[in-house]
Amino acid sequence: MKCSKQSNKRKSTIKVCIFRCLPVIAAVLAAVVVAPHAAHAQPASNIFSIPFPRIEIGVREARNPEDVPLVIQILALLTVLALAPAILIMLTSFTRIVIVLSFVRSALGSQNVPPNQVIIGLALFLTFFMMSPALGSINEQALQPYLEGQITQEEAGALAWAPIRDFMLRQTREKDLALFISLSGAERPQSPEDVQAVSLMPAFAISELKTAFQIGFLIYVPFLVIDMVVASTLMSMGMMMLPPVMISLPFKILLFIMVDGWNLVIGSLMQSFR
Predict the structure, then answer these.
(1) 3-state secondary structure 146-181
(2) What is the DSSP string of 178-204?
(3) What is the residue-averaged pLDDT of the chain?
(4) Closest by alpha carbon to 203, among 217, 220, 189?
(5) pLDDT tens figures, 149-183
(6) How many beta carbons lie within 10 A of that of residue 118, not counting itself?
(7) Which of 20, 50, 53, 242 is least enclosed, having the fewest CB within 10 Å?
């Protein structure tokens, strides 16, 4: 009994010592970790009192007339950021590329191979590759002069829109552009600079869709011939219960590999933008 009481007293004494030493240990650790970084910015008395930043988000009343345009600019910027995925998809080569790659997968009949993540990732990389001349022109003519204070924000926006407009005009059919110009009731533009963005954007989108479907049809034809040959062969052999897709899929994959299909598809797809 005496031994157990003594052991309990020792344990309680050890616990009290540990709790009393915790602030000292914490102070030592703080001195070792924080002091080398804070010694140049704070005096020695404020080493252990590190302030936490306070973040405030709120809406206040506009005190000056200059505050109103600034608020409108911020709202416009947030709107553009929210529409950034749509801008990337509809105003670049992404639409045509991702549709053609989806047609390739459907023509092969390989279900989810390659998966959607791979197709979208490849389409994004090819889009950046295709749009790199326009992006380089935007960086040299609009972004860098604006950051250096040589041009205003409005001038930077006009200079940045010019390479995108030229790319879209090269890929847009005159028939599609004339359709939206007539629907908008605007006058016939005399030069590419006179084409309004509100008419050019939808015209470019439907032109890209038509071109992508034309390329997809040409991709489908050889694989459709293989399906028809396999289906007719199975019917002539009386094997009607065997799915033709099960037999034609290996032949289509073999044909695609033998002709180096990905190289041909991507090469032809990139050449279609020239």
Answers:
(1) HHCCCCCHHHHHHHHHHHHHHHHHHHCCHHHHHHHH
(2) HHHHHHHTPPPPSSGGG--HHHHHHHH
(3) 77
(4) 189
(5) 888 878 888 888 889 889 999 999 989 999 998 88
(6) 13
(7) 53
